[in-house]
UniProtKB/TrEMBL annotation:
<dbReference type="GO" id="GO:0004800">
    <property type="term" value="F:thyroxine 5'-deiodinase activity"/>
</dbReference>
<dbReference type="GO" id="GO:0042446">
    <property type="term" value="P:hormone biosynthetic process"/>
</dbReference>
<keyword id="KW-0472">Membrane</keyword>
<keyword id="KW-0560">Oxidoreductase</keyword>
<protein>
    <recommendedName>
        <fullName>Iodothyronine deiodinase</fullName>
    </recommendedName>
</protein>
<feature type="transmembrane region" description="Helical">
    <location>
        <begin position="23"/>
        <end position="42"/>
    </location>
</feature>
<comment type="similarity">
    <text>Belongs to the iodothyronine deiodinase family.</text>
</comment>
<keyword id="KW-0712">Selenocysteine</keyword>
<dbReference type="Pfam" id="PF00837">
    <property type="entry name" value="T4_deiodinase"/>
</dbReference>
<keyword id="KW-0893">Thyroid hormones biosynthesis</keyword>
<dbReference type="GO" id="GO:0042403">
    <property type="term" value="P:thyroid hormone metabolic process"/>
</dbReference>
<keyword id="KW-0812">Transmembrane</keyword>
<dbReference type="InterPro" id="IPR000643">
    <property type="entry name" value="Iodothyronine_deiodinase"/>
</dbReference>
<comment type="function">
    <text>Responsible for the deiodination of T4 (3,5,3',5'-tetraiodothyronine).</text>
</comment>
<keyword id="KW-1133">Transmembrane helix</keyword>
């Protein structure tokens, strides 16, 4: 019995060590990047480059970091490590089953009974999962073929953590669900159109989808059909739009075919 326990704890320790070793290179790379970005001349150059690069599109939120924000701090390193860990352990995989985690709807009227992410999928229509800020233009433009769900997770830049003066609101870490709902309410003022839910206090959607800091997904037939990169760099609304555009033309093509065959 004690032997079993020791071997189990040894196994856990080994597993943790393995994870650390695997995550260390990317973490160190990110840390060096943050450190370099604290030299303002480098920061300005990098930001301008990113804005000018072919990859950036008007749909993507611009990366902006004010000069006054320090990037290389204990809090920022902690946040980056946490993000890498979530990404590593997430269960959502492209082509795999969509994790059906519990969420809490914003309006109290629909808060009866447990709600889950897939409850928001309607038939075979794609469901855009947006763990980030709202992008109403794109959501509205594709509303005829896809639904969207804004999932509000923990703050990327809480006022008592990795503070950023570029955040639209200064919100402290959520201590309870009420805090989180209140913060989501604040953001929701601008998010008309898509349904808004918040993650549970166990952060189960955030963990399953590796959503922190922000991320985009598309689910269809209970599967992950599009998985965006880790935000902020990987958060690309333009990529999402490309997927939807392709889906729309496939849909039109197959509709045309049915009409011909009937
Ligand atoms: C979920 O995130 C919040 C921060 O918003 C944190 O306070 C809480 O401890 C987290 N829950 C778990 C189970 O890690």
């Amino acid at each position: 019995m004690t032997n079993d326990l020791t071997s189990e704890s040894v196994q856990t320790a080994l597993k943790n060590a393995a994870v650390c070793v695997m995550l260390l290179p990317r973490f160190l790379l990110a840390a060096v990047m943050l450190w370099l970005l604290d030299f303002l001349c480098i920061r300005r150059k990098v930001l301008t480059k990113m804005r000018e690069s072919d990859l950036s599109s008007p749909d993507d939120p611009p990366l902006c970091v004010s000069d006054s924000n320090k990037m290389f701090t204990l809090e920022s390193l902690r946040a980056v490590w946490y993000g890498h860990k979530l990404d590593f352990f997430k269960t959502a995989r492209l082509g795999g089953a969509a994790p059906n985690t519990e969420v809490v709807p914003l309006d109290s009227a629909s808060r009866r009974g447990a709600q889950r992410i897939l409850d928001y999928a309607r038939g075979r229509r794609p469901l855009i999962l947006n763990f980030g800020s709202s992008f109403q233009r794109v959501a509205r433009q594709y509303a005829d073929i896809a639904d969207s769900l804004l999932v509000y997770i923990e703050e990327a830049h809480p006022s008592d953590g990795w503070v950023s003066s570029d955040a639209p609101y200064q919100i402290p870490r959520h201590r309870c669900l009420e805090d989180r709902l209140r913060a989501a309410e604040l953001m929701n003022r601008e998010a008309q159109g898509s349904a808004v839910v918040v993650d549970t206090m166990e952060n189960s959607s955030n963990s399953a989808y590796g959503a922190y800091f922000e991320r985009l997904y598309i689910l269809k037939d209970e599967k992950v059909v599009y998985q965006g990169g880790r935000g902020p760099e990987g958060y690309r609304v333009s990529e999402l739009r490309d997927w939807l555009e392709r889906y729309r033309s496939d849909l039109e093509a197959s509709n045309a075919e049915t009409v011909v065959h009937v």
